[in-house]
Specification:
Length: about 220
């Protein structure tokens, strides 16, 4: 598990949203590819992030100044714009005025970890962003993830940038449910929590234009 320490205190993924993303990316980076089918099936059943079922793994080597410098020039992939801050210390100094010194220090270290993971494995980082903060995923990063509706939260349909104002996590999970159930052009799906999720016609039109209609063939399952 990735944690950060500042001012003699430690914060973990449950304390900082950005650190939660970095930790998820680390688990995805280290996963055995043979686990993928089971992870996606479990996510289909409860619409939860696939990485939530991956075990904790050791953190890679800690981030350094090079990671922060990289982050300043790669806001598109990272999903966080720190271009105005020459170092993590500068970022923490700015944030301390409204968040307090301790949380500012944690946040700067967490963002450095985000940069470390994005540099280490851009695909794993993008999948983690799709799970936990999909609005931060830029359109250019979608080339790194699958287009199949069977990928659920780990596919392009989970990104609001794919079809602005239309796609997102709920639509991605609804399409995955339709694909697994052989329900082509269904206009809605009932989520595990009882909500009704609508699938607009324009989503199905995009499915057709991408040649993905066969994914929804009824398999008799």
């Amino acid at each position: 598990m990735i944690t950060v320490s500042f001012d003699d205190t430690t914060a973990g993924p449950d304390d900082l949203p950005s650190l939660r993303i970095a930790d998820a990316a680390n688990r995805i980076h280290g996963m055995d590819a043979r686990l993928l089918p089971g992870l996606l099936e479990s996510s289909w059943l409860d619409w939860a992030p696939p990485s939530s079922r991956l075990p904790d793994v050791d953190a890679p080597s800690p981030p350094g100044r090079d990671d922060w410098l990289w982050a300043r020039g790669h806001a598109g992939l990272l999903g966080f714009d720190v271009s105005a801050y020459g170092s993590g210390m500068m970022f923490a100094s700015m944030l301390a005025k409204r968040a307090g010194v301790r949380r500012a220090g944690w946040s700067a270290l967490a963002l450095a970890w985000c940069a470390r993971m994005a540099r280490l494995d851009a695909r794993a980082w993008t999948l983690a962003l799709l799970e936990h903060d999909p609005a931060r995923v830029q359109a250019d990063s979608l080339r790194l993830v699958p287009v199949s509706p069977l990928s659920g939260l780990w596919g392009v349909w989970a990104s609001p940038a794919f079809m602005p104002g239309v796609t997102g996590p709920d639509v991605a999970c609804a399409l995955m449910d339709c694909a697994r159930g052989g329900r082509y052009r269904s206009d809605h799906v009932v989520a595990p929590d009882g909500r009704t999720v609508r699938i607009p016609d324009m989503v199905w039109d995009r499915v057709d234009s991408m040649g993905l209609a066969s994914v929804f063939a009824d398999t008799g399952f």
